[in-house]
Amino acid sequence: MAIEIQGLHKSFGRVHALRGLDLEAPVGQVTGFLGPNGSGKTTTIRVLLGLLRSDAGTVRLLGGDPWADAVRLHRDIAYVPGDVTLWPNLTGGETIDILCRLSVPLEPERKRTMLDRFDLDPTKKARTYSKGNRQKVALVAALASRAPLLLLDEPTSGLDPIMEAAFQESIREVKAEGRSVLLSSHIFTEVESLADRVVIIRDGETVESGTLAELRHLTRTQVTAVLDAGADTLASLPGVHDLATGDGRTSFAVDDDALATVLAEVARLRPRSLVANPPSLEDLFLRHYGDELAALEGGGRG
Amino acid sequence: MVRRNRVRLVVWFASLVGLFAYVADYFGSVFTTQAALDDFAAISDNPGIKALTGLAAAPDTLGGAVWTKIWMTLAVSLALGIVFLVTRNGRADEELGRTELLRSRMLGSHAQAVATWIVLAVLAVAIGLAVALVSMVAGLDPDDAGTTGSWVVGASLAGVGLVAIGVGALVGQFTATSRGANGLGSIVILGFYMLRMIGDLGDGALTWASPFGWGEEMAPWGANRWWPFGLMLALTAVLLAAAWLIEERRDHGAGLLPDRAGSSGAPARYASPLGLALRLQRGPIVGWTIAVVLSALMFGSVANQMSDLLDSAGGNVAAMLQGAGVDALVALLCSMIALLVTVFAVQSATQLRADEASDILEPQLAGAVSRTRWVLMRLLIPAVGALALLAIGGGLLGVSYGSTIGDPSQALRLAGATLAYWPAVMVIVGLAVALFGYLPRIAIALSWAVIGALWMIMILGDALNLPGWALNLMPFSATPTLPAEGMDWTPLVVMTAVALALVGAGLERFARRDIQPA
Fold first, then answer.
1. DSSP string, B281-342
2. Is A89 near chain B, with CB under 8 Å?
3. Distance CA A151, CA A181 (A)
4. How much is the average pLDDT of B433-445?
5. According to the model, what pLDDT value does residue B226 have?
6. Across residues B390-397, what is the average pLDDT?
7. Which residues of chain B have a CB within 8 Å of the CB of A48?
8. Do A71 and B177 make contact, defined as CB atoms within 8 angstroms?
9. B257 confidence band (pLDDT: 50, 70, 90)
10. Does the N-terminal peptide bond of residue A155 adopt cis geometry, omega within 30 degrees of 0?
11. Interval B354-374 mean pLDDT
């Protein structure tokens, strides 16, 4: 394991930011770290960097203690903060060199590649960069080395779709080299396409974790079919939920373990068309935050 | 604008008016007889007092004595405070993008700047009015002279405040960062202070080149001149008009000084905390070195004029300078250089917290650098820098002074005198580090408050009516005032130990605590 966290607690005064968080990130994999703003992702990463001290729980990072062994561990870590602050009077290129060399040896060849890939002018003073460009500086600095572990805190929140693609390409290369990544994000498609494992947290607690395949098992597949014969027989099958008909279409949700029997019954009804969607990461996520959404809608404020 | 600054506005108003009221009240209780006032008047014409607090005006009246003691302090504090407030509401907002938000709404391009100017003008006038009222209530006006003197005092302070608004507005147009604007503004204000200092000590011509000089020449209870107030209003109008014109012509977010393309890579030495800090503080280091060199050379030439004056005045004046004659003045100049160096050292030391507050510490500590090593290497700059600047400042003061009296040995002698302040400077730096460890959120403000207190004590001295033991606890007062006094190693060793203990305590705490961005 590159990262192992069990029962992590952290309070700031009266605010209980982390309440027993668990997280595992295996070596050589990309671990997605999902949760809305304020759920504790950044606090967790700061604990992993030894910037904050945990109140309770065990945290292991590359086999060491992130607080006590910070200096040794940081030689193997590249970090991209969520809110990138740079020295206003240094150029982007200088900043990249400094940030990278503070922990790991810089590889000039990689730096050039990444500067090209992210289309960043390294001779400009940092104070003239936009938010997206500041983020690119931090990303290039992290990607210009061969650090075994990358801690990325919402690294693409200011990037455009082209840069997002460049980022995903880079992370796949990192993974192909057997290095590990912890990717905190709230962009579902990004995590879905990059992550091997996903950890979903809420209010400082882990509510779901596992591979995407494992997580999908926990939820229902959404099925929409056009059935001539009517759908009455389906409603009584175990594992079928929220059945609705209209415009000749029948739609319902199926528990994962009932999928085979239900689809056999659908086949018997001779559907003219059939669409079955596996749950997206967004669905998984919203399953845990559905009540908050409901509260929002119930509140009647748009 | 008022809402976002109300605390600051109230604090500046209350502390300046309060200080005036305090000194007025204290002097009222001390100088109960005309004889006491005559004594005060006799010593207030000496060069040391002229250098620090400017020309005396009717010091043989109670009002004149208060004015002579406190006016320069109030004027310089007010000017600096207003420059910082202008920057805070102008350049700093623009840098942070707040202005963009407002300008994208209904506001015209000058609306915010003008609002700031108006509010601060109200502050300056309010302080002037309040000081005038306090002066009348405290009975500073002589019985037969009406209240003209009180009104002149108030007007002189309000005028300085108005000029400072103009200075702040103009420097904010030149630089693209609030730090640059504050730095440039402070240099202009200190420059005005220096100009009038040289003028006051010399033939008086340069006094008229400084708004502080104009304020001095209003001389309440003495000449009671009103027309220098007109000069201040005119200068304010010119400065504000210039700022207005520049703001109209430049792009939002840009300064007049353009951004150039820089290097696409950094040398390897920047990856060490010391190398990086040296690069980041290059500007301040060069700036403070120039400031110390210029002040030392100027002080040195001034000291010579003083010694002439002392010779011609004979034994009387020498006796007033606590018997040591020109050495007392030279010792005072040495301590002023030490104070300049302290400002540099504290500015450098407070960068520890500044880095933490601005989130830029996080990526540094995410590198393979221990917190202890990061702090210690950073502290090399104020520690070694202060040592070097003290030696340079004292040495050049000696060279400049020695060349005019034909005594080259003064260079070494005065370098030694200023170097004796190194432990005192380090105590203040240690205090800044301890505050950084234990009270990070208010560390910077408190560190500057310490500097402010040192400056007040040095200028006001006995007028603050502090007990002797409290004065002796102050690092600057504890330092032997070479060359007027003899050398005493004990306080230096004690202060070095205190400085080390403070740094150690701050470090130990910082190594154990959470990183707390602003």
1. THHHHHHHHHHHHHHHHHHHHHHHHHHHHHHHHTHHHHHHTTT-THHHHHHHHHHHHHHHHH
2. yes
3. 6
4. 94
5. 92
6. 95
7. none
8. no
9. low
10. no
11. 92
The interface predicted TM-score (ipTM) is 0.82
- Pseudo-torsion of CA A98, A99, A101, A104, nearest 10°? 180
Distance, CA of B518 to CA of B59 (rounded, Å): 48
Contact B167/B79 with Cβ under 8 angstroms?
Answer: yes
Interface test with A, best of B91, B362, B374 (most A CBs within 10 A): B362
CB atoms within 10 A of CB A224: 15
Q: Residue A299's pLDDT is what?
A: 47
> How far is B85 from B95, CA to CA, in rounded Å?
15
Distance CA A295, CA A290 (A): 9
Q: Is the pLDDT of residue A302 over 50?
A: no
Q: Calculate the average pLDDT of chain B.
A: 85
Q: Which residue of A has its CA nearest to B281?
A: A89
Sheet of strand A56-61: strand arrangement: A15-25, A3-12, A56-61
Least CB-CB distance to A87: which of B265, B360, B367? B360
Instruction: Say if residues B228 and B236 touch (Cβ distance below 8 Å).
Output: no
pLDDT digits (tens, 9 = 90+) for A227-249: 877 777 888 888 888 888 877 78
Q: Are B458 and B476 in contact (CB under 8 A)?
A: yes
Candidates A113, A115, A117, A137; CA nearest to A125 is A137
Q: Reduced to 3 DSSP states, what percent helix, strand and coil does chain A have, rounded to the nearest 5? A: 40, 30, 30
Confidence of residue A215 (pLDDT cuts 50, 70, 90): confident
Domain boundaries, chain B: 1-30+72-257, 270-518
Nearest Cα to B183, choosing from B287, B271, B103, B280?
Answer: B287
How many other CB atoms are there within 10 angstroms of residue A253's CB atom? Answer: 17
Average pLDDT of A128-146? Answer: 92
pTM confidence score: 0.78
Interface residue A79 vs chain B (CB under 8 A):
yes
Report residue A24 as tokens. Answer: 């595992």
What are the residues whose beta carbons fall under 8 Å from the beta carbon of A120, sequence distance 6 or more?
A: A92, A133, A136, A137, A140
What is the per-residue pLDDT for B256?
Answer: 60
Q: Which helix (H) or strand (E) holds A127?
A: none
Q: How far apart are CA A193 and CA B60, in angstroms?
A: 85
Q: Which amino acid is at A88?
A: P
Of residues B169 and A234, more confidently modeled:
B169
Contact A139, A166 (CB under 8 A): no
Which residue(s) pair with A30 in the sheet?
A: A181
Dig out the tokens for A117 from the structure.
């890939």
A293 vs A63, residue with greater confidence: A63
Give the one of B259, B359, B368 whose C-beta lies nearest to A74's C-beta: B368
* Geometric angle at alpha carbon A259, from A258 and A265, rounded to 5°: 95
- Interchain pair A90, B279: CB under 8 A: yes
Q: Which two three-digit tokens encode residue A155?
A: 């690294």
Average pLDDT, chain A: 88
Q: Given this model, what pLDDT does residue A44 score?
A: 96
Query: Cβ contacts of residue B61 below 8 Å, gap of 6+?
Result: B37, B140, B142, B221
User: Which of B259, B276, B366 minimises the CB distance to A79?
Assistant: B366
Residues of A in contact with B359 (CB under 8 A): 81, 83, 85
Write the DSSP string, B123-189: HHHHHHHHHHHHHHHTT-S-TTSTTHHHHHHHHHHHHHHHHHHHHHHHHHHH-SSHHHHHHHHHHHH
Nearest to A98 among B276, B283, B365 (CB): B276
Question: Is residue A73 predicted with pLDDT exceeding 90?
Answer: yes
Nearest Cα to Cα of residue B345 among B503, B510, B172: B503
CB contact at 8 A, A40 and A21: yes
CB contact under 8 A, B266 and A95: yes
Can you tell me the distance from the alpha carbon of B235 to that of B250, in angstroms, rounded to the nearest whole number? Answer: 23
